[in-house]
Design goal:
heterodimer, A: 263 residues, alpha+beta, 7 helices, 4 strands, B: alpha+beta, Gyrase A, domain 2, four-stranded antiparallel sheet
């Protein structure tokens, strides 16, 4: 009897039994693997993506909110009133040097206060104000912190007056619609023994600000005018200075036959 | 004798195998259910976020359109604000000499007059004459009062001289209170 054939058959049968036994574990093992594969390759990336969308949604919600607020502010504005305020703001801080207008305003302030202007001197340089360009006659740092805030044009003024006229002139200059500041003020008696007549010299800085060239992004929050800013503009509007031609340089007749003949 | 223990050991191995198989089946089923629940949850979460995003984008576009329709008003406001806020800053820093002189006049004794006053770099230099030293003392003490301190600070007497008539000539320097 050939026992080797029986042994082989037995071993084969045992192997088949072992395979059948372990193959019953294949289904749960494969399902675990599939679960992990789904979690790692589909669910987790999608979850991360959803988290990113949530984060960007938070930013979008803030953006939508700020835009809504901005649109509400803009909707509440009175365009006619704003146009008046812009004209007044242009009087307050012109877009360019407007040096002749300034001199004209100083002359008017002098005439209405009774001071005698001895000398008015300015070196305005280029009359075109370019945004970001330093002022043509950039004031020395000694002129005060105000001159560093905005570009300015400087006019040196010398005058003779009585004390009360001087005070009136200083008050008139401060009341000019344009933003001006006085520095290096020197007041001395006409004689060393004291006199009712005073010799005065000062530097008047008149500020200007070129128009903003762009509005910025749509998300840039809109800043409303404060009450004091509104009051200041309202004051200029109320005086009529923002609309009447009195604040412009006076017109003169033009055309001469002999340009060297004295006037 | 080792043959006696063979049967129970076989049974033990089979039992352990069956237990492992059972635990593996339960575990895999639980994992499948968990995966399904998590997948569904993520799907719902993802869909919600995507739909919310679409809504927000629509809101942003709507508001952007509204803002664009008010662009001219915004331009006017930006210009007015830009200029008036800068003017406010300048005006807040400038010295009002009219007020300074008016305030100063109230502090000056009757027996004093000034020959010159110079304001520069936040400094004030005053030269003048006084009937007596008491008048100069009166001026200095006036300048050191709270009212005087609103106009000047760090008062120093640079020179004080008297002539044969008893008239005093003085030079006083001080810091402009506005510039401090």
């Amino acid at each position: 009897m050939d026992l080797s054939a029986v042994t082989k058959a037995t071993v084969k049968a045992e192997n088949s039994l072992e395979i059948a036994k372990y193959s019953s574990l294949a289904v749960p093992a494969v399902s675990i693997l599939v679960s992990f594969a789904v979690l790692l390759m589909i669910v987790w990336p999608r979850f991360s993506q959803a988290l990113q969308i949530k984060k960007s949604n938070t930013e979008l919600a803030q953006k939508a909110d700020s835009l809504k607020q901005k649109s509400a502010i803009l909707a509440s504005l009175d365009k006619t009133e704003l146009e008046k305020q812009v004209v007044a703001a242009e009087q307050l801080l012109p877009s360019d040097k407007k040096v002749f207008l300034l001199i004209s305003q100083i002359e008017r302030a002098a005439a209405s206060s009774g001071v005698l202007l001895n000398r008015v001197e300015s070196t305005p340089g280029s009359l075109e104000a370019v945004s970001g360009e330093p002022p043509a006659n950039a004031p020395a740092p000694s002129a005060g912190a105000a001159t560093e805030i905005a570009p300015s044009v400087k006019v040196n003024v010398s005058l003779t007056s009585g004390y009360s006229s001087l005070l009136q002139f200083l008050n008139n200059v401060s009341a000019i619609p344009r933003t001006v500041s006085i520095s290096d003020l020197s007041v001395s008696s006409a004689t060393s023994e004291g006199s009712a007549q005073l010799k005065v010299s000062m530097s008047i800085f008149a500020y200007f600000k070129p128009m903003p060239t762009d509005l910025g992004s749509i998300e840039t929050p809109v800043a409303e005018l404060t009450q004091s800013e509104k009051d200041k503009l309202e004051k200029i509007i109320d005086t009529g200075l923002a609309t009447t031609p009195s604040v412009s340089v006076p017109q003169v007749p033009i055309g001469r036959e002999d340009i060297f003949a004295p006037f | 004798m080792p043959d006696i223990n063979l049967v129970p050991q076989e049974e033990k191995v089979t039992e352990r195998f069956e237990s492992l198989k059972k635990r593996l089946s339960v575990g895999s089923a639980a994992l499948l259910i968990l995966t399904a629940v998590f997948t569904l949850g993520v799907l719902v979460f993802f869909t919600t976020q995507v739909s919310k995003r679409a809504q927000l984008i629509a809101q942003v576009e709507d508001n952007a359109q509204v803002i664009n329709s008010y662009k001219s008003a915004e331009e006017l406001l930006v210009v007015a604000k830009d200029k008036s806020s800068l003017a406010e800053k300048v005006l807040a820093q400038r010295t009002d000499y009219y007020q300074t002189f008016n305030g100063f006049a109230k502090l000056v004794p009757q027996g004093i007059y000034f020959t010159d006053i110079k304001f520069s770099t936040g400094k004030i230099v005053m030269n003048g004459k006084a009937k007596s030293s008491a008048e100069v003392a009166g001026l200095v003490s006036s300048l050191l009062t709270p009212e005087g301190s609103r106009i000047v600070s760090n008062v120093t007497i640079d020179t004080l001289t008297a002539d044969e008539t008893g008239t005093y000539t003085f030079s006083i320097a001080a810091q402009s209170a506005k510039q401090n």
